[in-house]
Amino acid sequence: MRIFQVILMTLALLLGASGAQAQGAFGQGTPHITARLVAESAAPAPGKDISIAFAMAPEAGWHGYWENPGDAGLGMTVEWTLPKGVSVGPLRYPVPETLLISGLMNHVYEGPYGVLATLTVAPDVAPGTHLPVRVKAQWLACTDKVCVPESGEMLLDLVAGAGQVSAADRARFDGWRTHQPRPLGSEATYAIADGTLRLSVPFPANAQANEVHLFPLAEGLIRYAAPQTVARDGDRLVITTQAGEGGKGGPVQAVLRTGDHVGFLLTAQPGAVAD
């Protein structure tokens, strides 16, 4: 369903009359979301990790997508070409925003954002070794009317060293890290009955929670465009919304937004949720 919607939006763009219709499509022309691959350190130390990031910058009026994009859209895909002794972990997205378009809920980023990953250099890599890190990335750039598939080939030319990090690079990456969902220290519980999902999340009674929204990582757990209600139950938040048709039981993961670009990464187990 989602891919069909994206195809329709893309065809509308490619068949339209606008002179800028093909910009950035599959890497051609000027992209509507510029992407740069950057490293926190250009000299990663053998046996250590560093953070790398895709620095994404949408044009005004355009947006990119979270890993579970919602009712429409597509997240970023990457294909790495790595030197011996180097590995890269999964992409880590910042807390997304909600954007409702024609009754479809989109999980998006409307301003600059950083998608992080951890790069590891093996202990047996000799200092001074050149470590070219290449990636082919694809992402979708959309407005409220059209979408353009975009792509880029990027290179990080690293050299194994002592892991030095400049003050400017540390500040830039710290800024991106503040928008990453923090792991929730305790497990949440959820229950589905009569087409309704209720999720109970440990959350201190004296802690502020604004713009609360549940973003499941897996598809089909909830109806994305359905209203979400939030209630306090002592040291817990209870989120109630319409269940989707793809819930398979067992543990589920989600991001719970609790403020402007901040939130928690939680795991919820099936269990009792107080009324």
What's the SSE blueprint?
Blueprint (H helix, E strand, L loop, with lengths): L1 H13 L18 E7 L9 E10 L5 E7 L6 E5 L4 E3 L8 E5 L2 E6 L3 E9 L8 E13 L4 E13 L7 H12 L3 E2 L4 E6 L2 E7 L10 E4 L12 E4 L3 E7 L9 E8 L2 E9 L5
Parallel strand pairs: 11-18, 12-18
Antiparallel strand pairs: 1-2, 2-8, 3-7, 4-9, 5-8, 6-7, 9-10, 12-13, 13-16, 14-17, 15-16, 17-18
Explain what you see:
By secondary structure, this protein is mostly beta strands. It has two domains: 2-178, Sandwich (Immunoglobulin-like); 182-270, Immunoglobulin-like, CATH 2.60.40. It is 9% helix and 45% strand. Strands 11, 12, 13, 14, 15, 16, 17 and 18 form an eight-stranded mixed beta sheet that branches. The protein has a four-stranded antiparallel beta sheet with strand order 1-2-8-5.
Low-confidence stretches: 8-23
Tell me the span between the first and last alpha carbons: 34 Å
CATH-assigned homologous superfamily of the largest domain:
Thiol:disulfide interchange protein DsbD, N-terminal domain
CA-based gyration radius: 20 Å
The number of helical elements comes to: 2
Features:
single chain, 275 residues, mainly beta, Immunoglobulin-like, four-stranded antiparallel beta sheet, 18 strands
At a glance:
The chain is mainly β and 275 residues long. 9% of the residues lie in helices and 45% in strands.
